[in-house]
Amino acid sequence: YYLLPLTSAALAPFIACLFAPEDARVAGQWPARALATLTPAQQALGADGRDVVNVWDAARKSFGLMGSEAKRFFGSIGAGGAAGKFEGSDMAAHFPSLLPVASVAGLKGIEGIDRMVAFAETMRDFTGTSGEAATAMGDFLSKIDSPDVQRNFAKFGIDLEKRLKKARASGEDILSTMRNIMLEATKGDATQLTKLFGDKQARDAARVVLQWLDKINEKQRVIAANAPKVIDENNARILKDTKTQLDMFWESWAKFKTDAGGTIAPVVKPILDTVNTENDKDAAVRAGLDKKGVTGRWNQEKWLLWNNPSEAERAGLMVDGGYGLDK
Hints:
- With 327 residues, the chain is an all-alpha fold.
- The chain has helices spanning 8-16, 30-45, 49-63, 70-83, 88-105, 109-124, 130-143, 147-154, 160-169, 174-186, 200-260, 265-291, 297-307, 311-320.
- The longest helix is centred in the last third of the chain and has 61 residues, at 200-260.
């Protein structure tokens, strides 16, 4: 039922993934997982299909997530989007470039994803757009390992490289670690951050970490609690809205038929006949593929996409499938 509101344009990126290089697939089982997890995620987040594919690819490669964690991953994004201004669709667009940087900084696994989503939502509260928030986060997480920033911390008597190396080795949270180190350097005075981070975007994110870590922690708790259920809940709401819209359509259609009487029949009948004929032809093509040994809707879609049969070849399949060409 997940496919009901999905358009062919949204589905195209997932079909394209079937023929992607092996290292771009999900643990060698990309086709099945694509429709089982990525499609409902795309619908629940309202994101572009390609963004959904790319963000999951970045998450599994950078954060070491397994295929079984895909739904939980998208649940974290969805829960974050519901809790703040950084929409889930925006995360799907910006996180593919942000997650590799966060991974190098020391964040890993589902807990690391929750941390990044909470950081993004908090950062968004202090920026004008989601893009600005993502840029600030990326600059901060990359600059903490830069020689310039390390030299700036050294002026305060802090060996930043050594402190970060020790924190990462012991599995400490990188944001909490940086907050403690910055607090030590600035004594809590955010204006001193200009002496540590020359880049404005990195400085903006550093200020959020220094002053609002408690807010990040609270958002992370909410996100972790809601993530397991948000994808199913969002899709249930979408399907309910779709059913309501269909019910309203059929009520309007029934009223239209009653009001218009027989005058619409000459117009509508040819349209319906055409639709029915095309459905018959499609069913015959699939019956012909069944006889060729290509069974199952998904395998047939792949076969048609890959082989792109000509009209004559389709006609042959239709005949094999029992369609009378004299219809």
